[in-house]
Write a structure and sequence with these properties.
GO terms for molecular function: lytic endotransglycosylase activity. 49% of the residues lie in helices and 7% in strands. By secondary structure, the chain is mostly helical. It has three domains: 64 residues, 2-Layer Sandwich (Dna Ligase, domain 1), CATH 3.30.1490.480; 97 residues, no CATH class; 131 residues, no CATH class.
């Protein structure tokens, strides 16, 4: 028995020794990791090269969020670590960064870089700019690009219709452009994917690929801001752009897009056709001042008088206001609406009430 006690006592000493050694090793590892992490972060917060005077041209596109800006700065060699720059700006509660072209150096501190980005100062004037208004189709955008560049509208449409180009954009923006754009009923895969904005170009002859991809890039930046809402609504970016395009085309100067959005959602919920005239015009492929009753019967997947649900894809490019309205509709029971001759909208819960609005505001 005494012998067994001696053996157990010896084993206990061994166990305690092992525990002590393991504990010391863990503490040592934690200490090394902590010190290494401290110096890593400290290094990332310092200029890349305090003595550098080389100028680095950096372009911050319209609509860029802090994640995009951080990645651009790291890619251009202005900062050491994009993630740490992102956390640093959030820690300091910095925002309102301006799009533009900047001249930065590797000797700049993070605070100096932040201050520069907040000023929005462009280091040189653009060679030319292209303004794409809201509510335009690809064909209309092609005409605008043709007016400002040496490319023809035919060349523009050939590029945006090219499967190779579309797949290239899918690879670049996989969360934005998905297989949905290859739906057999879609007229143009990239319809609605060129964001309405003013685009400045700083070289005399940018490629057509660059011009179009810049517009798609901005759409990606805008739409990806609402990733959480899209997931919550179980809505894809393609469905969002399609829905928003209907609001964009229905909009008048005084319209309430959130309430129109509620009408569409209410109709979708009860499997009622959306019956929106802009989809008929898109189906016809031509602009008309007045949609006739015979037009409402055109057999086309975009005609929401004939087909239930959303059309196969966007019918125009939607701006941020329409995108946000599609994601944040007003809570109503309206199923009908109409715009009077002055652009004011009148909503109704029943068809009878809608007919009364027609009598009161249109049949005059």
């Amino acid at each position: 028995m005494i012998e067994k006690m001696k053996i157990r006592k010896k084993e206990g000493r061994v166990v305690r020794r092992i525990v002590t050694i393991v504990t010391l090793v863990i503490l040592l590892i934690v200490g090394i990791v902590g010190v290494s992490g401290y110096f890593y972060v400290k290094s990332a917060l310092e200029p890349i090269d305090p003595d550098s005077t080389d100028e680095i041209a950096v372009e911050i596109p319209m609509g860029s969020g802090i994640s995009t800006i951080s990645s651009i700065l790291e890619k251009n060699g202005v900062i050491k670590n994009a993630r740490i720059f992102k956390y640093y700006t959030k820690f300091k509660n910095e925002s309102n960064f301006q799009a533009g072209n900047y001249i930065l150096t590797q000797s700049m501190t993070l605070d100096e870089i932040i201050e520069s980005l907040k000023t929005g100062k462009v280091y040189h004037e653009p060679v030319f700019s292209v303004t794409v208004p809201e509510g335009l189709t690809l064909e209309q955008i092609s005409e605008i690009v043709a007016k400002h560049t040496e490319y023809t509208s035919e060349q523009f449409m050939e590029l945006v219709s090219s499967k190779e180009f579309i797949q290239n954009m899918m690879g670049t923006y996989p969360d934005l452009i998905t297989e949905e754009v290859f739906n057999s009923n879609i007229r143009y895969s990239l319809e609605g994917y060129l964001y309405p904005s003013t685009y400045a170009f700083y070289e005399e002859k940018p490629s057509l690929h660059e011009i179009v991809s810049t517009m798609i890039s901005l759409t990606n930046d805008v739409v990806m801001q609402y990733g959480g809402l899209l997931e919550e609504k179980e809505m894809t970016p393609h469905q969002l752009l399609t829905f928003a395009s209907l609001l964009e085309e229905e909009a008048t100067a005084q319209t309430d897009r959130e309430t129109i959005a509620s009408v569409f959602y209410n109709r979708l919920e009860i499997d009622m056709p959306l019956q929106t005239d802009p989809t008929v015009l898109y189906a016809l492929g031509s602009h008309k001042d007045r949609v006739l009753y015979e037009d409402l019967e055109v057999d086309n997947p975009y005609n929401t008088y004939v087909v239930q649900g959303l059309p196969p894809g966007p019918i125009a490019n939607a701006g941020k206001i329409s995108i946000e309205a599609a994601l944040n509709p007003t809570d109503t029971e309206y199923l009908y609406f109409l715009a009077d001759t002055e652009g004011n909208n009148h909503f109704a819960k029943s068809y009878e009430e809608h007919l009364q609005n027609i009598d009161e505001y249109l049949d005059q």
